Structure to design on (135 residues):
């Protein structure tokens, strides 16, 4: 393997590892906001920290002879990066949406993924007195 090919392989592996770390930040943010019931809860690491952790992970995988790009096809890598690139803003948009884009609930009828498109039911509790019981 030439020096340029090795650098390209290393850059690609670093990018995959950093993408995984970013996904972990997003998952921890969702988990933390649900558990703490705080919608403003955020887990975020800066790029320097992600680079440090990704480098350590890459060196470990290199030591063991495992290269992510050898096990993943270029199509899988492109699909996962595209899904992350498109999916992340869509999730934020849906979270802050004031109205629905589609009026019908066709997507909610799909098996397995339909549950993500169903409207969330809000529990309502009636507060008041039962006048008949008092009399």
């Amino acid at each position: 393997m030439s020096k340029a090919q090795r650098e390209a392989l290393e850059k690609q592996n670093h990018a995959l590892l950093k993408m995984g770390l970013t996904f972990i930040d997003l998952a921890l943010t969702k988990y933390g906001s649900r558990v703490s019931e705080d919608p403003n809860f955020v887990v975020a690491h800066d790029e320097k920290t992600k680079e440090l952790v990704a480098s350590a992970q890459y060196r470990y995988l290199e030591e063991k002879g495992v290269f992510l790009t050898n096990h993943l096809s270029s199509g899988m890598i492109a699909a996962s990066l595209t899904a992350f690139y498109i999916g992340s803003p869509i999730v934020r948009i849906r979270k802050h949406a004031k109205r629905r884009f589609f009026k019908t609930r066709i997507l909610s009828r799909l098996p397995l993924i339909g549950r993500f498109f169903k409207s969330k039911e809000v529990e309502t509790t009636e507060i008041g007195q039962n006048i008949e019981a008092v009399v």
